[in-house]
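User: Second chain of the day. Same drill as before.
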Amino acid sequence: MTTITKDCFQETLQNALERMAFVFVETAEESPGEVLAQATFHATIDVSSDERSAWLTVSATNGFVREVAASMMGLETDEIDVDEHGEPTVCELANIFGGELVMSLGGDENPLRLGLPRVLNDAEVGARIDQISSGSEGWALALRSDEGLLLIGCHY
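Assistant: Same format as last time:
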């Protein structure tokens, strides 16, 4: 499995969000830890091959969840109940971003499998981001939209 840099994947993520939800993001001024402290919903998805495995986490603030969910459902942000739509929204983002990761890393010589997204709690996602921060292979990317913050962590 080849590696992919944070900067390279940021453009892929930005394009995916624009295509699927008409949400425009830019690099956040906040650190990954600051975004994680504000995020209320977390999900992860695994990517694997016969030789290696990787995972991707997605953490989002209430504002980001409202913005993405509203756009995907054709509603206004104030019509979105984050308690109802938060987990499904971050799971769908994990699925979409995981698919983008498979497309970026995969190839005919090294087929990849994409797992199913699952919800993480604060401690689980914190441990994963700490694993990346401790020098393990991977990266964390903090993004900002008009309404909120998004954190993507990738370990490979």
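The mean pLDDT is 92.

User: Great, on to the next one.
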